[in-house]
Specification:
- The chain is mainly beta.
- The protein folds into three domains: 2-89, TonB-dependent receptor, plug domain (Ferric Hydroxamate Uptake Protein, Chain A, domain 1, Beta Complex), CATH 2.170.130.10; 97-140 and 158-311 and 372-675, Maltoporin, Chain A (Beta Barrel), CATH 2.40.170.20; 312-370, no CATH class.
- Helix content is 1%, strand content 60%.
- It has one helix at 2-5, and strands at 13-16, 24-27, 30-31, 35-37, 40-41, 58-64, 84-89, 97-105, 109-119, 126-137, 146-160, 163-176, 182-184, 194-196, 209-224, 229-251, 261-289, 292-318, 334-339, 352-354, 360-362, 364-370, 374-390, 395-409, 417-433, 436-447, 464-477, 482-501, 508-532, 535-549, 566-575, 584-593, 596-597, 618-619, 622-633, 636-643, 651-654, 659-662, 667-675.
- It has a 22-stranded antiparallel β-barrel. A four-stranded mixed beta sheet has the order 5-4-7-6, with no helix packed on it. The protein has a three-stranded antiparallel beta sheet with strand order 1-2-3, with no helix packed on it.
- Strand 27 (464-477) and strand 28 (482-501) form a beta hairpin.
- The longest helix is centred in the first third of the chain and has 4 residues, at 2-5.
């Protein structure tokens, strides 16, 4: 998964998996880190990192943080100011080669993959590549399974030696069972009464399923105008569709306060998310004004995001004809009441109920009726300029400026809303001696999506602005074989707003109020490299102090949800390069996520139930230990993976949404590939 791939990037963690069907990542206290594909945003939902691409189609992954992230566009997601993740996909390399592989692992995992590329003409100007994967798996938990299909064809054309045109499309279809791994046996978010459901039980129903279908097309052109000037342009369109039918369990607050009784219900929703993006950049390198060297970039980007969400109301009825539910249940969405420590069924046809005549019967069914679709549509345009100035071998400076404009379509009589912002960037790099750099930078970014929201006093909310200062060192050692980086950041987000709710309800009034500021200070350290020809190491640590300030909505000094103070990672790989064990590799890694609050410490109703006025408990920290053994022989490559060796129970959550999910317990897999 993408979460596994970024595990060795300091400070990047999984915010939540929302029932195991999504990946929302966090960094620097921002949740919902946007995921780009080849520099382009492919969907408008911040929780959908897992829907962007299958890892079989990935060539490399880049984490863009700090001042570099400001060039990626106007803030239209929760996590832009914290950084973005760019997934670089596989495209033709103008070679004739291929690779097939298969992975088999715990709980019936079976994953065949292929990657094939060829040159199509004698002049080697046209090349084609196709890679793909199929995967199916059950789970350590009863009644939970998944399957997916992924295809990624691409075509590259070089009409001249200075021009490359790349066409790429991909198709991703994923089905998996939404699952809740744990519940809190207390109605208060201030009490840690977490209960992990035994693996032989499943809280949902067999009909639960989340289907994600992603289709995208991208065209890119890179052209060298001269030895110093070049252009690159891309146009992309994507369709992201989700059909979710899932169950939820709600604690019944009985007088005995045993908190072991839950009601179960089902829901259904659809999401249709369409995006179109155009980007153009002009790059100039090795430009001089006197003795000062410049690397300049000027660009424009335009994006349309059009998403429609439809929620369905479920009507329960007996499976038998001419039978009615008892009157109290006829308009209820509750399927049944269960004892969390007892047994329960996972099929609607097995649910026991009492009919209108007082008779006990078995078997219910549910019929869904679509509600009114809710459409969200916005377009954004941005202009960006950047200059990397090299005064001499000791001092470099970076100057940048971005103008962003966003237009949100209002499907009522209020008309469209248009907001704009200017965001500067400045940085300096000092190199006191070779391979050792000291840097500092400043940037700000603006969230325009909520700027026009009406406040309770009748004025507009205004944009939320995030200012970010960074400083640190970047260094290379041992003849560039080992890299050590240390970064300090200070991030100040001001003018937060929250929705107002009718007292005693979760019904929004349509008005908003000021919610104060959010401050984030932190340190990120990493030590990576190939210490020896056959020894590779990756070590990382991140510290985060995130807290609300001047807030009437949150307790001052409290941290945002799922923001751990400490995270750490380590990975070591040793390859035998001589003797009888030549080409054998041994790898081991450890990953630590510190404790973190399960929710915001809200002081006012927030539309997420009754979780306000109480300090939330911390989700416990966890550490996982993984190992890998590999062996290469001619064109064959074999690997054995053992993950979570200590069988640690680690939990991630979107607590206020009812999701608490467990990381996979101890598991193993074998992968075999052949190159030709």
């Amino acid at each position: 998964t993408l979460t596994d791939a970024v595990r060795n990037i300091p400070g990047v963690t999984l915010f939540g998996s929302y029932g195991g069907v999504k990946e929302s990542l966090s960094t620097r206290g921002f949740r919902g880190v946007p995921v780009l594909k080849n520099g382009v945003r492919m969907d408008s939902q911040f929780q959908t990192a897992s829907g962007v691409v299958d890892m079989q189609g990935v060539e490399s992954i880049q984490m863009i943080k700090g001042s570099a992230a400001v060039t990626q566009g106007v803030i239209t997601d929760i996590g832009n100011a914290g950084g973005v993740i760019n997934v670089v996909t596989k495209t033709p390399n103008f070679t004739n080669s291929g690779e097939i592989g298969v992975r088999a692992g715990s709980w019936g995992q079976f994953r065949p993959t292929f990657d094939f590329q060829t040159v199509l003409d004698k002049k080697e100007t046209v090349a084609f590549r196709m890679d793909g994967a199929y995967e199916r798996s059950d789970s350590y938990r009863k009644s939970v399974s998944s399957n997916r299909v992924y295809l990624n064809p691409s075509l590259a054309w070089k009409p001249t030696y200075k021009t490359t045109v790349t066409l790429e499309g991909d198709y991703f279809n994923d089905n998996r069972t939404p699952v809740n791994s744990a519940v809190n046996l207390n109605p208060s978010q201030g009490v840690n009464a977490l209960y992990v459901i035994p693996n032989n039980k499943f809280l949902g129903f067999n009909s639960d399923n989340n289907n994600t279908e992603m289709k995208s097309f991208m065209a890119q052109i890179n052209h060298e105008l001269t030895d110093r000037w070049s252009i690159r342009a891309s146009i992309a369109t994507s369709s992201y569709q989700v059909d979710n039918q899932s169950s939820s369990s709600t604690l019944i607050k009985d007088d005995a306060k045993q908190y072991n009784t839950f009601s179960r219900s089902m829901s259904k929703s659809l999401r249709d998310d369409k995006n179109k993006t155009f980007q153009f950049d002009l790059i100039g390198k090795d430009l001089y004004t006197g003795k000062v060297k410049h690397l300049v970039q000027a660009g424009v980007d335009y994006r349309i995001a059009d998403a429609t969400t439809t929620s369905f109301a479920g009507k329960l009825s007996p499976l038998e004809k001419n039978v009615l539910l008892k009157k109290a249940d006829q308009n209820s969405n509750v399927i049944d009441i269960i004892d969390i420590h007892g047994d329960w069924v996972n099929d609607l046809s097995e649910v026991v109920y009492v009919d209108s005549l007082g008779n006990q019967r078995k078997g219910k069914q549910i019929v869904y009726t679509a509600g009114t679709p809710v459409r969200s549509y916005y377009s954004s345009i941005g202009f960006m300029g950047q200059d990397v100035i090299e005064f001499n071998k000791y001092i470099k400076a970076v100057l940048g400026l971005r103008y962003s404009e966003i237009t949100t379509k209002d499907f009522t009589s209020n008309g469209n809303k248009r907001e704009s912002a200017w965001n500067p960037m400045a940085g300096v790099i000092v190199t006191p001696f070779e391979n050792f750099n000291v840097f500092g930078s400043y940037t700000n970014s603006t969230n325009l999506r909520n700027a026009a929201n009406p406040l309770t006093d009748g004025t507009a909310a205004g944009a939320s602005k995030t200012e970010q200062f960074e400083g640190g060192i970047k260094s290379d050692w041992l003849n560039n074989r080992l890299r050590f980086n240390l970064t300090y950041f200070h991030i100040y987000t001001s003018n937060l707003t929250n929705a107002e709710y009718t007292p005693g309800t979760n019904v929004a009034t349509g008005l908003y109020f000021k919610a104060g500021d959010l401050v984030r200070d932190g340190i990120e350290a990493e030590l990576n490299g190939r210490v020896l020809e056959n020894l590779t190491v990756m070590f990382g640590y991140a510290y985060l102090d995130a807290r609300y300030k001047n807030s009437p909505s949150y307790m001052d000094g409290s941290a945002p949800m799922n923001a751990p103070k400490h995270t750490a990672n380590a990975w070591i790989q040793y390859v035998f390069n001589q003797g009888a064990l030549r080409n054998l590799s041994l790898s081991a890694g450890v990953y630590y996520v510190g404790d973190r609050p399960v929710n915001e410490y809200s002081l006012t109703p927030n539309g997420h139930g009754e979780y306000y006025g109480t300090e939330p408990f911390n989700m416990p920290a966890y550490t996982t230990l993984n190992a890998q053994v590999g062996y290469k022989w001619r064109k064959f490559d074999a690997k054995v993976f053992v993950n979570n060796i200590t069988n640690e129970i680690g939990l991630n959550s979107y607590f206020r949404g009812g999701f608490i999910n467990q990381i996979d317990p101890r598991n193993a897999a074998v992968a075999l590939s052949y190159k030709f």
